[in-house]
Each structure stands twice: as structure tokens, then as C-alpha cells.
Write a structure and sequence with these properties.
- By secondary structure, this protein is an alpha/beta fold.
- The protein folds into two domains: 386 residues, Rossmann fold (3-Layer(aba) Sandwich); 137 residues, 2-Layer Sandwich (GMP Synthetase, Chain A, domain 3).
- Helices cover 33% and strands 22% of the residues.
- The protein has an eight-stranded mixed sheet, sandwiched between helices.
- Strand 9 and strand 10 form a beta hairpin.
- The longest helix is centred in the last third of the chain and has 23 residues.
- The chain is globular.
- The N terminus is likely disordered.
- 5'-O-[(S)-butoxy(hydroxy)phosphoryl]adenosine (WT7) binds next to helix 12, strand 20, strand 26 and strand 27.
């Protein structure tokens, strides 16, 4: 519980916009047409109460209204959180690609589905629903012809592009399970994920282009494949004109696609068949393949996309996340496409060719909802307001934030400068495991106040509770605890691939019959939620999750390292960075700048560049309990410069270890101060 803090929310309070209506007069069916199925429910609290008290009635009606079924479901939910058994819409059959493409082609074939915002500004490409269907079908037929079958796992290693989205949807069309791996992961990390998924098929591109630089994606795949003898085929799309070395398992994707038909029969999938795996970090060194299934996930992402962002037909939705993360899955691809929307695929960076890129893109593409990460906002804030003001942002209606806490300074700048005080800023809290947004300012009551830098209110069907250390539910407000969700919802993860036991142990054991999020939260006097950060050994670097055990695993592979301990530390731009303590093997003497560089390299090579440690401190020994457990609490306090809060050290086996680490940390701080002033 030590990581929890209580924010001074009273000082932050001001209104997102003036309250025009009170919730008690809220017109439910005006707001949510599907609510016509709930006669007698007149206001927002009534609708929310219904979603919690009669979840089957609520989700059943929405499932029938919003999704297009091949055969209808016979039960809405069948869940037992104690066992980690979660089943929604059983008996129903559907195809996700039909829901995301075909049904919109019937209505408006020439509507733009994707706007590919390529790295080079002004080079965007628009893809209509009809074109997306054709590309997806050709790709699906290619996969089938090359032997990919229903249930097979397909690893996709490419940045956001129409062909990447078509790859995901082509898998969905033929019932294959996609596993998108963020294209910034190293060959080793990619190989781990290919092996864990037993994936025989990879889809990649020859190269990637980002921030004006060319990245050799195919070469990374080649290295990974060497470690994965199970891989039978690698489809290679051409992002650039440059030829790359092709081996006998490599297949030129577009060339093969051109030989295929533009139609492909969709496979009827059961609601609970797997749709995708997505690897995310946990508190062990091994990432987990979070499994999402078909109907519940699709319904939940489309509903949250529609109501959290207030997305309307004709709007251009701009989520700048990469498709390699859950945000890209839910709010670049599945949510917006299920709603027949127009979604932006952003290939570039916030500072290419200059720090005005986001806002220049907003102006050129007339983006209505912009969804980004606090780390980028903090970075852009540093460059000043001129880069924002140089561009017309009048198209913007809502601004979203996700991935990590947004501090009030960044929130304010986003609200006042970017949104000109017109657009509500939505701090949305959710996780890879929750499938879609769970807590966000006004998922229903459009006129309700927004307190800056707070995730605020649970979405329909989400029942957040706070727990104390003894596993007791905390009643009342103005209180902090472990954030759990007390009822199942359709978007939640179903299992960890090939490791259901880990799923149950991680999420359902700490607080029986509750989903444990791993986060701490504060509930304000008014009953609003604010997320205070992870309670486990997971850190959040620029909105990307990373286990400290993964960093240690990589660092420990260096020839001179005897042992290590990694912890998170505050970082001005990234939100959190990593601070690694290492003990050298006996008799080793190595220059500091050499070990620093080599350890950064090894972490980049074993995991990804973003994971490279920010600080490395060589110590004689790590503080340990008498039973040999590393006391991370002590290391955290030292790094937070709270040496006077070290607390009870009587269980420590050697107090001089702590004194030595405190002194070494001071030196690192001094050096850091010198570097940043020079
Ligand atoms: C973790 C989940 C959800 C998509 C991106 C990250 C942190 C996420 C917020 C927020 C404070 C947040 C949590 C969570 N987080 N959104 N609005 N405020 N913290 O997905 O990689 O699964 O990470 O990100 O700690 O547990 P993810």
C-alpha cells in the first residue's frame, strides 16, 4: 500500500465545462438509442444501475442491437470470477471482420474507413470500406492458400498501416488468432512471443519508416526466426521499394495477394473462440499472452468508442497509438471499425518533422477526437505553445489520454492550449486485460463536471471497488486502496495463453471473486476515481508496461553482473524510468561508462530500446533480509530521496549496504545535475 498517495484534488477542481443539465433529467434514449429496450429507465443513474443490477438484460440488448450475428446467442453471461471462468454470448456465432467491414460496405461502400497518416506529412492515404474489404479478402485467401487454418496463431510484426490492419482482420475472417508484436521489440523478445504462441506464420514488412528513418524490420524477423524452428512461413509486405533478402520460407505478400479473389467467405466463429493474443508484462520475467475473444470484446470496444469519446457518424477518430499495444487494437482498429467510423493510422512521431506534427495532422485530416499518451503531451509542452497555435484545431471535439497518470500540468496544457478550453479532456483508465476503457470522465453524463487529472467515473457495467491490505472492501469516500472490479464485463480478458493457472493466480486470487487490476486508486469525497499507480513490480515507461524482473533478466545476462535489482523512478518526460542496481562478479573492475553503455545495449537487444535503463548504480551488495530477499522497499526510498523514511531496518542483514548505496546514489544525482545544466 506504500505506493498509494492521496492527491490534493480540491485544489485542482475546476469544471470541464459548465453543467447544463443535471443527471436526473438525462434523456436516456436520446443519448443511447439502444436503451429503447429498457422502458422505464429515464435517467443516467437508472441506466447505470441497470447495467450493474441486471447485466444480462443490459448487455443482452446491446449485443443484439450493435452486433451482427450469424446465429443468435442463447445466454448472455456465464461467469465465475473465482475460477477465472468468463463466458459471454454463448451459443452465438458471428464474424468480427463482417462486423467491422462488410456491414458498412452494404450501407456506404465509399465511406473512408482508414486514413493512413504516413511518416511523411501530406502523404496520407485514404482507404474506403469497399477497398478495405477487398484487401482483407485477398489477404485472407492468401493466408488460406499458404496453409493457415482456423485457430492457428499468426504473429504480426509491423507498424500501423492498412496492410497491418487488413492482416488483423484477415485473421479474424478465417478464424486465425493474431498476435501483434510491437515493431519496436527486439529479435529476442519477438522470438519469445513467437515461441510462446507456437506461431508458424509471421506477417511483417521489408522495412519500416518512422521519424524520417528507415528501420530494418525484416532483418529483425530473420534473427528471430533463427531461434524459432517452428516458423513455416513469413509474409513480407513492401513498405518501401528497397529489396530485402528473401529465404525459402519468405513469401512476397502483395504479389501473392494480387493472384487472389476479392471475396472470401467469413468463418462462423463462436462468441468465445479466441480473437487475438497480446503479450504484456507482468511481475515475472515472462510476458503473458493475454487472450481476448470475439463477441464480448467487440461489443465492449465499440460501445466505449461510441460513448466515451462521443463518436458520431462522420467524425474522424485520431488515436495515435501503435497497433502493437492494446490501445491500437481497441481504438485504432476494432472499436472504430465496428462502429463504421473513420480511423487514423498514425505512422510517425510527435516531433517529426517538428513538434507541431500532431496538430498539423489534426488540421489536415480534420480530426474530431484525438487520443494520445501523457508522455507525448509532456514532451510537446516543453516545446511551447507556438507549435500548437500554428495550426487550426477547430475540428477537435474531445481529447483523450491513456496509458499512465496525466499530471495536472500536462492535463491543463492539453485542455487550455490544445483544446482551447472547448474540448473535454478524458483521462481514460484501462489495461490490456480489461479490453476497453473502464474508468473515464463522462462515459455517459455528457454535462457532468470533469476534475483535472482524474479518470473519474466507471463505464456501464463496471463496478470498481477499493480493498485494504486484509482484503476487506473499503466503504465510503475519500479513501485509497487496491483497485478491483467486482463484476465481470464483456470486454475482459478470458485467460493467459496456455497458462490459465497464472491467469487465475494473477487476477482472481488476491481478492476472491474480484478482478484485481494491480493498480492502486483513490476515491474522492465526491466518489470519483483517481489512479495512483501500480502496486506490483510492473513499471510504466512512456505508457508502456515493463516488468522489473524482465529488466533484471536481461541485465543478469551480462558477463560481469552477479546480481541486480531494477525499480521504477520518476522521469520528467517518460513518467517512469528505470533505475538498476548491480553487483559485479568478484574481481571484476570495469569503467563506469563502459558498463553503463553495455547494459543499455543488452537490455535494448533482449527487450526493446524503450526498456534501456535510465540509471545504473554499481553497488557492493544489495540490501537483503536475513532470508536473502532483496528489500526493494529500501531501494525505492533511496531513489525517491526519502532516506528518512527507510523505516524498520531490523530485518536487514547488513546495514552498511544501505549506507553505501545512499552515498553512491548521491553521486549519481550530482552527475545528473551537472549533465542537465551543461
Ligand atoms: C496500466 C495498463 C490501457 C492502454 C494502455 C496501457 C496504467 C493506463 C491509465 C490512466 C493512470 C493508467 C495502469 C494500468 N494506466 N491508463 N488513465 N491513469 N494509469 O495498457 O500496457 O495494459 O497498461 O497502465 O497502471 O494498470 P497496459
Amino acid at each position: 500500500m506504500s505506493l498509494l498517495f492521496r492527491a490534493g484534488t480540491a485544489a485542482l477542481r475546476h469544471r470541464g465545462r459548465p453543467p447544463l443539465r443535471r443527471s436526473s433529467t438525462f434523456n436516456v434514449s436520446g443519448y443511447m438509442p439502444e436503451a429503447a429496450s429498457f422502458p422505464g429507465v429515464r435517467d443516467f443513474p437508472g441506466l447505470r444501475a441497470l447495467s450493474l443490477q441486471q447485466p444480462d438484460r443490459f448487455w443482452g440488448a446491446l449485443g443484439r442491437e450493435r452486433l451482427c450475428w450469424i446465429s443468435p446467442f442463447h445466454s448472455v453471461s456465464n461467469c465465475d470470477l473465482g475460477q477465472g471462468s468468463i463466458r459471454w454470448f454463448e451459443g452465438g456465432q458471428l464474424n468480427v471482420s463482417v462486423n467491422c467491414i462488410d456491414r458498412h460496405v452494404h450501407k456506404s461502400p465509399d465511406k473512408v474507413a482508414l486514413i493512413w497518416e504516413r511518416d511523411e506529412p501530406g502523404a496520407q492515404v485514404k482507404i474506403t470500406y469497399r477497398q478495405l474489404l477487398e484487401v482483407t479478402c485477398r489477404l485472407a485467401n492468401t493466408l488460406k492458400r499458404q496453409g493457415v487454418r482456423k485457430g492457428d496463431r499468426v504473429t504480426i510484426y509491423m507498424p500501423a498501416s492498412p496492410i497491418a490492419v487488413a492482416s488483423m482482420l484477415a485473421c479474424a475472417r478465417i478464424g486465425a488468432v493474431h498476435s501483434v508484436v510491437f515493431a519496436g521489440f527486439s529479435a529476442d523478445a519477438l522470438a519469445d512471443r513467437i515461441q510462446d504462441a507456437h506461431s508458424e506464420t509471421i506477417i511483417t514488412s521489408n522495412q519500416a519508416v518512422r521519424g524520417g528513418r528507415v528501420i530494418e524490420l525484416k532483418k529483425t524477423v530473420d534473427q528471430a526466426v533463427k531461434l524459432c524452428p517452428s516458423v513455416k512461413r513469413v509474409f513480407v509486405a513492401m513498405r518501401t521499394e528497397n529489396k530485402v533478402l528473401m529465404s525459402n520460407i519468405d513469401i512476397p505478400l502483395e504479389e501473392e495477394m494480387m493472384k487472389e479473389e476479392t471475396a472470401c467467405d467469413p468463418v462462423a466463429m463462436e462468441s468465445e473462440d479466441m480473437l487475438f493474443l497480446l503479450y504484456t508484462s507482468g511481475s515475472t520475467g515472462k510476458p503473458k499472452g493475454v487472450v481476448h475473444t470475439q463477441a464480448g470484446y467487440l461489443l465492449y470496444t465499440s460501445l466505449t468508442h461510441r460513448y466515451v469519446f462521443d463518436y458520431h457518424d462522420g467524425d474522424v477518430f485520431g488515436c495515435v497509438a501503435d497497433i502493437g499495444w492494446i490501445t491500437g487494437h481497441s481504438y485504432v482498429v476494432y472499436g472504430p471499425l465496428c462502429n463504421g467510423g473513420t480511423t487514423v493510422l498514425f505512422e510517425s512521431t510527435p516531433v517529426y518533422p517538428n513538434p507541431g506534427r500532431y496538430w498539423e495532422t489534426v488540421e489536415r485530416l480534420k480530426i474530431n477526437q484525438f487520443y494520445g499518451a501523457p508522455t507525448a503531451i509532456r514532451l510537446l509542452l516543453k516545446y511551447g505553445d507556438e507549435w500548437v497555435k500554428a495550426h487550426d484545431r477547430s475540428s477537435l471535439k474531445t481529447l483523450g489520454s491513456v496509458g499512465e497518470p496525466i499530471n495536472s500540468k500536462a492535463w491543463d496544457w492539453y485542455y487550455k492550449v490544445v483544446g482551447e478550453g472547448r474540448c473535454p479532456v478524458l483521462d481514460t483508465w484501462w489495461q490490456t486485460e480489461t479490453g476497453g476503457i473502464c474508468i473515464a470522465p463522462h462515459p455517459a453524463d455528457r454535462e457532468a463536471e470533469i476534475v483535472p487529472a482524474m479518470a473519474m467515473r466507471p463505464f456501464f457495467g463496471i463496478n470498481p471497488v477499493l480493498m485494504d491490505d486484509q482484503g476487506r472492501r473499503l466503504a465510503g469516500n475519500n479513501i485509497s486502496g487496491s483497485l478491483c472490479i467486482a463484476q465481470p464485463w464483456p470486454g475482459m480478458a478470458r485467460t493467459i495463453y496456455n497458462d490459465h493457472e497464472r491467469f487465475v493466480n494473477t487476477y482472481f486470487k488476491a481478492y476472491p471473486n474480484h478482478f484485481f487490476t494491480g493498480d492502486g486508486a483513490y476515491r474522492s469525497k465526491e466518489g470519483y476515481y483517481q489512479i495512483t499507480g501500480r502496486l506490483d513490480d510492473v513499471i510504466n515507461i512512456s505508457g508502456h508496461r515493463l516488468g522489473t524482473a524482465e529488466i533484471e533478466g536481461a541485465v543478469n545476462q551480462h558477463r560481469v553482473v552477479a546480481e541486480s535489482a531494477a525499480i521504477g523512478c520518476a522521469h520528467k518526460i517518460k513518467g517512469e524510468g528505470s533505475y538498476v542496481f548491480i553487483v559485479l562478479k568478484d574481481g571484476i573492475d570495469i569503467a563506469e561508462h563502459i558498463i553503463n553503455k553495455e547494459l543499455k545495449d543488452i537490455v535494448s537487444q533482449k527487450i526493446a530500446k524503450y526498456a534501456a535503463p535510465d540509471f545504473i548504480q554499481v553497488v557492493m551488495r544489495l540490501p537483503k533480509t536475513r532470508s536473502g530477499k532483496i528489500m526493494r522497499r529500501v531501494l525505492r526510498k533511496i531513489v525517491e530521496n526519502k532516506v528518512d523514511e527507510l523505516g524498520d531496518l531490523t530485518t536487514l542483514d547488513d546495514y552498511t549496504a544501505v549506507q553505501e548505496i545512499v552515498a553512491g546514489h548521491k553521486l549519481i544525482l550530482e552527475k545528473e545535475a551537472k549533465n542537465s545544466s551543461s
